[in-house]
Amino acid sequence: MLGTKGSEFSNSELKFPLIASSLLSFPGSVKVWDPRQKDEPVACMEPAEGEVKRDCWAVAFGNSYSDTERCVCAGYDNGDVKLFDLRTMTQRWETNIKNGVRM
Question: Does 101 map to a domain?
Answer without folding.
Answer: no
